[in-house]
Amino acid sequence: GEDIHARTSSEIFDVSLELVTLTQRREAKAVNFGIMYGKTPFGLAKELGIPQSVASKIIKRYFERYAGVAKIREELIKKAKATGYAETLFGRKRYLPDLNNKNMGLRGFAERNAINSPVQGTASDIMKIAMTKVWEKLHKEYKDVEIILHVHDELVIEVQEDMAEKVSNIVKLEMENAVKLDPALVVDVNIGDTWLAAH
Distance between the two ends of the chain, CA-based, in angstroms? Predict the structure, then answer.
């Protein structure tokens, strides 16, 4: 039930959860995704503008705190090497012919994709399912409401102002129940005159 990026930020910057700034959260997001997908202390130090020794400590603390991440990474690479592909939760496959390449750069890229594809691919699958469910529900009840844009894990929906609250409740409900996962999906809904204003 916590914001994982804010939690990581709290631990990295040694501040309480309520005092985490948006900048710190953005940096922690880079840490969460970077480390998950194989970022080195050198790469993390460069991205965050910190000494490499500090980046090494962050990565060490991260794996101590989230020990399961290293295990999952190893399992995903092992499975992909055995099958020749990475797979989403819904069975979509990404073939990775370079997993056993002698070229370390190509092999490393394929290994990162063996980790990334199941996670990002599953997120993409879920988003497509959610978008379909939202569209079907909205078009049963509100014919003039339109999904005008899909950006990563967001939907931008155009609606009359007087219907915004009702429509946002439908969107939240349909997106959160698009698939059943543990932990459950949590969706934030914002209303604004523009996409930027809603952020």
Answer: 21
**Structure tokens that stand for 9 in this block:** 């930020």
What's the gap between Cα 44 and its chain centre? Answer: 18
pTM value is: 0.80
- Sequence-separated (6 or more) residues with CB below 8 Å from residue 147: 131, 134, 135, 138, 155, 156, 157
58, 12 contact by CB (below 8 A): yes
Distance CA 184, CA 175 (A): 11
R_g over Cα of the chain: 20
Task: List pLDDT tens digits, range 53-98.
Answer: 988 888 888 888 888 888 999 999 999 999 999 999 999 999 999 9
Q: In which residue are the tokens 């996409």 written? A: 195
**What type of residue sits at position 65?**
R
Specify whether the CB–CB gap between 109 and 96 falls below 8 A.
Answer: no
Q: Could you tell me which residues are beta bridge partners of residue 154?
A: 151
Quote the CA–CA distance of 108 and 101 in Å, as a whole number. 9
Place of tokens 């039930």: 1
CA dist 20 and 180 (Å) reads 30
Q: Report the DSSP pairing between strands 154-158 and 146-151.
A: antiparallel
Tokens at 115, concatenated: 């980790």
Show the tokens assigned to 91.
Answer: 């069975």
Cα angle vertex 69, ends 42, 122, to 5°?
A: 105
